TrEMBL record:
Superkingdom: Bacteria
EC code: 1.13.11.-
Cofactor binding mode and count: Binds 1 Fe(2+) ion per subunit.
Listed Pfam families: RPE65 (PF03055)
Named cofactor requirement(s): Fe(2+)
Organism name: Sphingomonas kyeonggiensis
UniProt name for this protein: Dioxygenase
Molecular function GO labels: carotenoid dioxygenase activity; metal ion binding
Length: 396
């Protein structure tokens, strides 16, 4: 995602699994209609299933990073038990538009304009998202890039790869960081009218990478962890200039939803890294409960993608009075990309869904975590029986 921002020197030739095998970038934009359905699509399911990821037009195996490169959105429209179409389209950054000899996409840019990470529907609009810089893009019905947007001039910088919609207030919330501003992050609340109604600037040190966040009724939860901007990596030409930083204090910040920087309750914790939170809520005893996937460390030796040695599902209980974080492992099995029913965001909930990282480069299963009963159900997509296996958790 930083390829348009930074230099492109070739520095090493480590193996890059993210542009080979099943991850080989698509070379064409396809429109396939009336798809064959294997099994049954529930008739009540109606809409588009969308996903986005990097799909570089001109990948460079020796310097590619999983998070870098031109974005591509894929979609399937489902209606009345039928799969009406599949489409894949590159996000029209200036580089992509120029390469395709098309008119450039209108709308305001910030820092860079590659968008390749996530897609989210809000207020009837579909947004393509990235962190650390670019303004979001508006995606059309047939996956065309319509325009870049700064929410009618109210978004002063980039947004985030993972905004979340509070089902109780209808607001879209985000924690944003900027690859060119290492001393500040921003908490944003966007209203249903599509404009930023609240921005809180929070001082930080060293430019931490903050991919996701969580919220409760009272707090936005800030993950200030020791992966930070690396000027040496940027100058050296790495596409992704963030590295593990032993000198950066790991801490969790509780920002009151209507508060400012001076109101943040910071709580130290042992070094670790988090890409994704599952959910959080306020407990009756005044503590904050946060569920998330935790990596032991990140970006400390490989330059092409994640390199943690352990990741597991944890529950962090944060005491705002004592400023302590108590960590409990819910499931030690490797897993990532957690989600819950988004109607339960910010509130107590029961089920989390995660990708089982059976293969480090290829998630081939899903876990359904029952956080009330402490059990886990697994579905393995690899060929061969049995298709569904049930596990009883052996951990706490
Ligand atoms: Fe993510």
């Amino acid at each position: 995602m930083f390829g348009s921002l930074l230099g492109r020197r070739v520095l090493n030739a480590e193996d890059t699994p993210y542009i080979t095998g099943v991850n080989t970038p698509m070379r064409e934009e396809l429109t396939i209609e009336n798809l064959e359905v294997v099994g049954t699509i529930p008739p009540a399911l109606r809409g588009r299933y969308l996903r986005m990821g990097p799909n570089p037009m001109h990948p460079s195996p020796s310097r590619h990073h999983w998070f870098a490169g031109d974005g591509m959105i894929h979609g399937v429209r489902i209606e009345d038990g039928k799969a009406l179409w599949y489409r894949n389209r590159w996000i029209r950054s200036n580089a992509v538009s120029d390469a395709l000899d098309e008119e450039r996409t209108p709308g305001p840019r910030h820092l860079f304009d590659t968008v390749n990470t996530n897609v989210l529907g809000y207020g009837g609009t579909t947004f393509g998202l990235i962190e650390a810089g670019s303004t979001p893009v508006v995606i059309g019905e047939t996956l065309e890039t319509e325009r870049y947007t700064d929410f009618a001039g109210t978004l002063h910088g980039g947004l985030s790869a993972h905004p979340h919609v509070d089902p109780l207030t209808g607001e879209m919330l985000a924690v944003s960081y900027d690859a060119a501003k290492w001393g500040t992050i921003r908490y944003l609340a966007i209203g249903p009218d599509g404009t930023v109604r609240r921005e809180a600037k929070i001082p930080v040190r060293s430019g931490p990478m903050i991919h996701d966040f969580a919220f409760t009724g009272r707090f936005a939860i800030l993950l200030d962890l020791p992966v930070t901007f690396s000027l040496i990596s940027a100058i050296s030409g790495y596409q992704f200039p963030y590295r593990w930083n032993e000198d950066h204090e790991a801490r969790i910040g509780l920002l009151p939803r209507d508060g400012g920087a001076e109101d943040v309750v910071w709580c130290p914790l042992d070094p670790c890294f988090v890409f994704h939170a599952v959910n959080a809520h306020d407990a009756a005893d005044g503590s904050v409960v946060l569920d998330l996937v935790v990596h032991d460390r990140m970006f400390w030796r490989r330059t092409s993608g994640p390199d943690s040695e352990r990741c597991s599902l944890e529950r962090w209980t944060i005491d705002p009075e004592a400023r302590t974080v108590t960590r409990t492992t819910l499931d030690p099995a490797p897993q990532e990309f957690p989600r819950c029913d988004e109607r339960r965001l910010g509130q107590p909930y029961r089920y989390a869904y995660t990708m089982a990282m059976i293969d480090p480069f290829l998630g081939t299963g899903l876990f359904k975590q029952d956080l009330v009963n402490g059990t886990r159900q697994a579905h393995d997509f690899r060929p061969g029986p049995p298709p569904v296996r049930i596990h009883l958790r052996t951990g706490p």
